[in-house]
UniProtKB/TrEMBL annotation, chain A:
<feature type="transmembrane region" description="Helical">
    <location>
        <begin position="683"/>
        <end position="705"/>
    </location>
</feature>
<feature type="transmembrane region" description="Helical">
    <location>
        <begin position="6"/>
        <end position="22"/>
    </location>
</feature>
<feature type="transmembrane region" description="Helical">
    <location>
        <begin position="571"/>
        <end position="589"/>
    </location>
</feature>
<feature type="transmembrane region" description="Helical">
    <location>
        <begin position="107"/>
        <end position="123"/>
    </location>
</feature>
<feature type="transmembrane region" description="Helical">
    <location>
        <begin position="450"/>
        <end position="475"/>
    </location>
</feature>
<feature type="transmembrane region" description="Helical">
    <location>
        <begin position="296"/>
        <end position="314"/>
    </location>
</feature>
<feature type="domain" description="NADH-Ubiquinone oxidoreductase (complex I) chain 5 N-terminal">
    <location>
        <begin position="62"/>
        <end position="108"/>
    </location>
</feature>
<dbReference type="Pfam" id="PF00662">
    <property type="entry name" value="Proton_antipo_N"/>
</dbReference>
<feature type="transmembrane region" description="Helical">
    <location>
        <begin position="267"/>
        <end position="289"/>
    </location>
</feature>
Automatic annotation (TrEMBL), chain B:
<dbReference type="Pfam" id="PF04039">
    <property type="entry name" value="MnhB"/>
</dbReference>
<dbReference type="InterPro" id="IPR050622">
    <property type="entry name" value="CPA3_antiporter_subunitB"/>
</dbReference>
<feature type="transmembrane region" description="Helical">
    <location>
        <begin position="12"/>
        <end position="30"/>
    </location>
</feature>
<keyword id="KW-0472">Membrane</keyword>
<feature type="domain" description="Na+/H+ antiporter MnhB subunit-related protein">
    <location>
        <begin position="5"/>
        <end position="127"/>
    </location>
</feature>
<keyword id="KW-0812">Transmembrane</keyword>
<feature type="transmembrane region" description="Helical">
    <location>
        <begin position="67"/>
        <end position="89"/>
    </location>
</feature>
<dbReference type="InterPro" id="IPR007182">
    <property type="entry name" value="MnhB"/>
</dbReference>
<protein>
    <submittedName>
        <fullName>Na+/H+ antiporter subunit B</fullName>
    </submittedName>
</protein>
Length: 771, 141
């Protein structure tokens, strides 16, 4: 299984190397990988449907609990089949869609990266590994949304999507770490046994709160839903693959995966019900006002994701069956609708449903796919898989455990589905019926590889609709068992008898169709709705995001303003504050001055020279004099080292001082004559800071002297320098042996400094390279 | 700043100072000295020469850019760290020859580490100083 996840990554690297060839001759090889992976997962169906699961374990970072643990059970298999199956369709479709595009190879590289990441998410049995792949899907989605990188809108949408999903991922990481710490394991299959521990832990509300932020941002739940319509700036194959069928369902996958571990709790169920309920109705209503086919589909996708969250919130056996069936049904018809939209856009260069009509005459098979998918999304009885899904949703709401809520929940579900019926018709049927305008008469069918995949998916929806047991027994039953945690004992049937559920389905279909005929979306209506944008979550959250950016700019300008003097001031002030605080905490300093020895005359002489040099440095108007003064100070310190028997330090100080004086002189040569522009207040401020630093360091020296010091470390080095490292100069032995790695990195730092100076001065842009 | 006294002095000072810097490097393990100080002294020797004769002349003695000393030094240090791995010890284990070598004394892997430091220091100091001073010269012309 590791190979199934990594193969996409490996292949995307190959794509980098041989991109040119894949653009033209070898492009037929691209869809082979997803197809092979699909066959591999399809081959596992019989085994999994018997209730077995496949586990693979490879150590990666065992000390941190991060391992390549993979687990293929019913839920993973459902998603893996969707990812690879729809993936293969998309690869065939995208190859034709982007034929001749200059970034053709890049596109498929991102797509492969995404496919691997998504497979990683659904197959991981380790929550930290899951997180790694989760973030990879966000990143690949960012590249795909911003694929048309010369379009500023597209770049902005990509950034919004990354910002929102990355924000959620951060919260999710916190939740996962908390879960791992409480349960003391990061393996999902082991977490089941720790359910009670986590459920009864005081942090439980926080954990699920954080987890929900992660899942809701990924699955575009209210109030984080707005990145998804923006993500439709991506090329249509991407919208079909990532933003309807797979990636946005990662949030749903996460919730479903954790339902048996964290679910069946009042907080869990209520939050999901409320958020899912708001999202599904809000988005369904929104979709009715759109005129862009992709925008309609985007909002109806958000609504469908809301339905899934809502169902998970119900938490009953029927709801779990409905979740797995609806995931499959929705993926089949929504991917079809998106691909159909792509073809329409590709051939007519517009997606405006007020303009498009009658295209069935020129795009026959495409129209068939679109209409079948729209009917499936509407839930036409007896023929479509969407009907089975809708049936199960109503069954789940009607059998909810709290009787008072049944009618509210059912009403919500019916209202949402009515909206979805109308939205599906608007996107899947509207462009193909009616009279064909003259301007579209010359439209012709695209390549076969573009219209066969959507037709295939649409027909599959019909097959599953007529023979639901086929999908149920082999795929969705084991998935719902995995979410429910027990055998759900479900058997999908077309006909349940003439009962409430069937009546509700009929009502939904009829009212939805009525709305489709009455509601004529137009630009003016769209603009009326968009006036409400000021109070929409999008405006509020992007407002906050902009505030964060502004704060970042202000903070950076404050601390990283490019003035060396300002850096020095801040560093020294901070050090002063820190040391002063420690000194304050450690209590009074007891120094018995009478026990100190009197200084020798040459020590006093050195101190006087030092003071004189400092006075010279501070007062002189000439830079050169100041530099010379500084080096006098350096040599005096050097003498002090010699007197107090630190020859190594003295030698180093001496040579360093010599060289830095030379360096100063070389640099000073470049500077203009010195003019004193500094005001008196600044001078006084600097003097106070400098004096403060001196006083504090003197206090530290007294403190060190008055405290009994532990000599353990120096004793260790003194004893072992010769025994272990065969050296008698302890300082040198520490540098080259005991702490050799430190020295190694210090030399690296020095090298970087030298390279920095060299490149700043020597490597200038040629005039042709300047902008 | 061409003074004949300094020019003829550096003719003798350069080799002596270089020898001294090497001496510091070798004795570092037992007495004050070591690669860092040795490298600094060697750099001072070259800087003194460039003061007397101009950086162009010094570059002629060096024959190659001082920048190239940096990777050389870093790789010698890195090699001396990883060398013990070949003998099955953890990295940075000190490896020593059994018998002292005439004139040089005991030789071990830490001496090569120090040699790497020495070369890096010379490379870094000369790169920075010569880059700036050559640049100044160019602008003057």
């Amino acid at each position: 299984m590791l190979l199934t996840v990594l193969s996409g990554l490996i292949f995307s690297i190959v794509l980098v190397l041989f991109g040119r060839k894949f653009k033209a001759k070898w492009s037929i090889l691209l869809p082979i990988l997803p197809t092979l992976l699909f066959l591999y997962f399809a081959y596992q169906i019989p085994q999994i449907s018997e209730g077995k699961s496949i586990i693979q374990h490879i150590d990666w970072v065992p000390s941190l609990g991060v391992n390549f643990d993979f687990h293929l059970d019913g839920l993973s298999l459902l998603f893996a089949l969707l990812i690879t199956g729809i993936g293969s369709c998309i690869f065939f479709y995208g190859r034709a869609y982007l034929k001749g595009h200059p970034y053709f190879d890049r596109f498929f590289g991102y797509l492969l990266l995404f496919m691997s990441a998504m497979l990683g998410v659904v197959l991981s049995d380790n929550i930290l590994l899951l997180f790694v792949f989760w973030e990879l899907t966000s990143i690949s989605s960012f590249f795909l949304i911003g694929f048309n990188n010369d379009n500023p809108d597209s770049r902005k949408s990509a950034l919004t999507a990354l910002g929102i999903t990355g924000f959620g991922g951060f919260f999710m990481l916190l939740a996962l770490v908390l879960i791992g710490n409480i349960a003391d394991t990061y393996t999902i299959s082991e977490l089941f046994t720790h359910r009670e521990t986590i459920l009864n832990h005081e942090l439980y509300p926080l954990i699920i709160g954080l987890l929900f932020v992660g899942a809701f941002t990924k699955s575009a739940q209210f109030p984080f839903h707005f990145w998804l319509p923006g993500a439709m700036k991506a090329p249509t194959p991407v919208s079909a693959y990532l933003h309807s069928a797979t990636m946005v369902k990662a949030g749903i996958y996460l919730l479903a995966r954790f339902t048996p571990i964290l679910g069946d709790h009042t907080y869990w169920n209520t939050t999901l019900l409320v958020v899912g309920g708001i999202t599904m109705l809000y988005a369904a209503i929104h979709s009715l006002f759109r005129i862009d086919m992709k925008a309609i589909l985007a909002y109806s996708t958000i609504s469908a994701l809301g339905v899934l969250t809502f169902l998970l919130g119900l938490g009953t056996r029927e709801a779990m069956i409905a979740v797995s069936v609806f995931i499959l049904a929705h993926a089949l018809y929504k991917a079809t609708l998106f691909m159909v939209t792509g073809i329409v856009d590709h051939e007519t260069h517009t997606r405006d449903i007020t303009v498009l009509s009658g295209l069935r005459k020129v795009l026959g098979p495409v129209a068939l796919a679109g209409i079948l998918a729209a009917l499936s999304s509407a839930g036409l009885p007896f023929l479509t898989f969407g009907f089975i899904g809708k049936d199960l949703i109503y069954e789940a709401t009607l059998h909810y455990t709290i009787p008072e809520w049944i009618w509210i929940l059912t009403g919500l579900a019916v209202a949402t589905n009515i909206g979805l019926v109308a939205a599906g018709f608007m996107a899947g049927i509207k462009p193909f019926v009616g009279t064909l305008p003259q301007e579209f008469e010359k439209v012709h069918l695209p390549y076969k590889s573009m219209w066969i995949p959507p037709l295939l998916l649409a027909i599959l929806g019909v097959i599953f609709g007529i023979l639901p047991a086929l999908a149920g027994d082999f795929i969705t039953n084991t998935a719902s068992n995995a979410i429910w945690g027990n055998d759900t004992a479900s058997h999908l049937k077309v006909w349940h008898g003439f009962n409430t559920v069937f009546i509700l389905s009929l009502v939904t279909l009829i009212v939805g169709s009525l709305i489709y005929f009455i509601n004529k979306p137009s630009l003016s209506k769209l603009q009326a709705v968009e006036r409400l944008n000021n109070i929409s979550p999008q405006r509020i959250i992007t407002g906050y995001a902009n505030d964060i950016v502004r704060f970042g700019q202000w903070y950076t300008n404050l601390f990283h303003n490019g003035y060396l003097r300002s850096y020095h001031l801040k560093i020294i002030l901070f050090a002063e504050a820190l040391i002063a605080y420690r000194l304050w905490l450690s209590g009074p300093i007891n120094v018995d001055f009478w026990t100190l020895t009197y200084p020798d005359w040459y020590e006093i002489a050195i101190i006087f020279i030092l003071i004189g040099a400092i006075y010279l440095v501070v007062t002189t108007p000439s830079r050169l004099t100041a530099v010379v003064g500084m080096s006098v100070i350096g040599y005096c310190i050097c003498l002090i080292f010699v007197i107090y028997s630190a020859p190594d330090l003295a030698m180093t100080q001496f040579t360093i001082d010599t060289l830095s004086t030379v360096l100063f002189v070389l640099v000073l040569y470049k500077l203009p004559p010195f003019i004193n522009l500094t005001s008196h207040t600044v001078l006084i401020r600097d003097a106070v800071v400098a004096l403060g630093f001196g006083v504090i360091l003197s206090l530290v020296a007294f403190k060190v002297w008055s405290e009994p010091i532990s000599t353990e470390i120096s004793d260790f080095y003194g004893e072992n320098a010769y025994l272990l490292a065969k050296g008698k100069n302890v300082v040198n032995v520490i540098l080259v042996d005991f702490r050799g790695i430190d020295t190694m990195f210090e030399t690296v730092v020095l090298s970087i400094a030298a390279i920095g100076v060299y490149s700043l001065i020597r490597l200038r842009l040629k005039s042709s390279e300047r902008e | 700043m061409k003074s004949p006294i300094l020019q003829s002095a550096t003719k003798y000072l350069l080799p002596i100072l270089l020898l001294f810097s090497f001496f510091l490097l070798l004795r570092g393990h037992y007495y004050p000295g070591g690669g860092f100080v040795g490298g600094l002294v060697a750099s001072i020797a070259f800087v003194l020469h460039s003061f007397a004769n101009g950086p162009d002349e010094t570059m002629k003695i060096l024959k190659r850019k001082p920048l190239s000393l940096i990777p050389t030094g870093l790789s010698i240090s890195a090699l001396s760290i990883t060398l013990p791995l070949l003998f099955g010890y953890p990295p940075m284990t000190g490896l020593w020859f059994e018998e002292p070598i005439p004139f040089i004394g005991m030789i071990g892997s830490s001496l090569f580490f120090d040699l790497g430091v020495y070369l890096v220091v010379v490379g870094v100091v000369l790169t920075i100083l010569f880059t700036i001073s050559l640049n100044n010269l160019e602008e003057k012309n």
